[in-house]
């Protein structure tokens, strides 16, 4: 479920929203498909978020294997990410509508978000030309910042200040779905045919061990914003 609502879905304390039943099903030692039966509808929608992320990564890989001027696969990679955001938004809505929170929802949401808004943008950046060794390290830094941000949310969500409805008052650091802002910029680059050797700002320190594309610093900046402790963004 959405990282800002997965544990605060507004379910009345009197009903555990199916959590005890889910505990029982998940801990069951019998039945090959007991885990599938334990999933709520909102969890299945979260899985669709993860599916979009995986398909985005695969599409970026397919672009690397084909004609670099055939942008069909890279467009698919970029389009799958906003679809992931749609499912990330809808799973929380469904959980509140059905008044069912999910113990697995928070973990599923974090893992799906990491794929769709962490790994998928980094894979698209690689496909579009950020392929030097230093580019790889900086893109890895970005993904690890997203991983750390999601883990911190899971640990601290219960202690963050809440409003009257029980929802956290603010995001600590930028939420990982905001990496879509970079995705939209990459889409603009593709539309202008600014890819591979024609990436904006070019290549710095070419021919050395430290060559990199300055454009990758957008990912570094966003990674730093995600893990910031002092940046508090009010929730709508």
Structure description:
GO terms for molecular function: CDP-diacylglycerol-serine O-phosphatidyltransferase activity. It is found in: Endoplasmic reticulum membrane. Belongs to the CDP-alcohol phosphatidyltransferase class-I family. By secondary structure, this protein is mostly helical. It has a single domain, classed as CDP-alcohol phosphotransferase transmembrane (TM) domain (Four Helix Bundle (Hemerythrin (Met), subunit A), Up-down Bundle), CATH 1.20.120.1760. Helix content is 58%, strand content 3%. It has helices spanning 19-27, 34-38, 41-65, 72-98, 103-127, 133-156, 180-191, 217-227; strands at 170-172, 232-234. It has a two-stranded antiparallel sheet with strand order 1-2. The radius of gyration is 20 Å and the shape is globular. Mean pLDDT is 85; it is low at 1-14.
Q: Can you tell me the CATH topology?
A: Four Helix Bundle (Hemerythrin (Met), subunit A)
Count of DSSP-assigned helices:
8
| Architecture per CATH nomenclature, i.e. the level-2 architecture | Up-down Bundle
Q: How confident is the prediction overall: mean pLDDT?
A: 85
Low-confidence stretches: 1-14
The tally of beta strands, per DSSP, is 2
Assign the CATH superfamily: CDP-alcohol phosphotransferase transmembrane (TM) domain
How many separate structural domains?
1
Rg to the nearest angstrom?
A: 20 Å
Tell me the fraction of residues in β-strands, as a range. under 5%
Terminal residue distance:
17 Å
Helix content: 55-70%
Shape: globular
Strand order of the largest sheet: 1-2
Class of secondary structure makeup? mainly alpha
Q: What profile does the largest beta sheet have?
A: 2 strands, antiparallel
Catalytic activity: a CDP-1,2-diacyl-sn-glycerol + L-serine = a 1,2-diacyl-sn-glycero-3-phospho-L-serine + CMP + H(+)
EC number: 2.7.8.8
Family: Belongs to the CDP-alcohol phosphatidyltransferase class-I family.
GO molecular function: CDP-diacylglycerol-serine O-phosphatidyltransferase activity
């Amino acid at each position: 479920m959405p990282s800002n609502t997965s544990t605060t879905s507004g379910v009345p304390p009197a009903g555990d929203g199916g959590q005890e039943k889910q505990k029982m099903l998940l801990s069951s030692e019998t039945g090959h498909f007991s885990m599938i039966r334990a999933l709520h509808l909102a969890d299945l929608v979260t899985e669709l978020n993860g599916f979009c992320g995986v398909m985005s990564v695969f599409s970026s890989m397919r672009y690397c294997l084909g004609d670099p001027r055939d942008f069909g696969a890279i467009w698919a990679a970029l389009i799958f990410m906003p679809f992931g955001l749609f499912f990330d938004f809808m799973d929380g809505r469904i959980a509140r509508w059905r008044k069912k929170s999910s113990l697995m929802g928070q973990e599923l949401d974090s893992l799906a978000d990491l794929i769709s808004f962490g790994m998928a943008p980094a894979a698209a950046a690689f496909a579009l030309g950020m392929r030097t060794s230093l580019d790889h390290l900086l893109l890895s830094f970005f993904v690890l910042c997203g991983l750390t941000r999601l883990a911190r949310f899971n640990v601290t969500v219960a202690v963050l200040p809440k409003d009257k409805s029980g929802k956290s008052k603010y995001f600590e650091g930028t939420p990982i779905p905001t990496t879509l802002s970079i995705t939209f910029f990459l889409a603009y680059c593709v539309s202008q045919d600014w890819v591979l050797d024609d990436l904006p700002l070019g290549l710095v320190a070419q021919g050395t061990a430290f060559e990199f594309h300055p454009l990758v610093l957008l990912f570094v900046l966003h990674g730093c914003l995600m893990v910031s402790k002092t940046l508090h963004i009010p929730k709508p």
